[in-house]
Fold this protein.
Amino acid sequence: MVDDFLPEDLRVPSRDEVAGMMMHLRRPLVIDGEVRECPRCGAYRDWIILSIRDEVWLRCRASHETLEHRLDTAWFNRNSGPMDAMHATFEDGLKYLGHHDN
């Protein structure tokens, strides 16, 4: 009998094993026909978009984080593309995406 499963080092963690996912969006984020701005500083581009549990959060370049009720996990999955890296900490992920705190 042949094992159908990939070797352990080639397996991708399930969503239950990952605390969250993030992607960088350099262009403006348009939701329902309006350009989304950070409510604290007015930034409208260069977002980190976070998918954590069943919520989508936006993080601007100034590190302000806002829950975005109009986006969901399905939207994130359609727009994020394939996962290209995993990080041990949130800060490591931000650094990888060039969006770390100064």
User: Anything to note?
Assistant: Residues 18-96 form one domain.
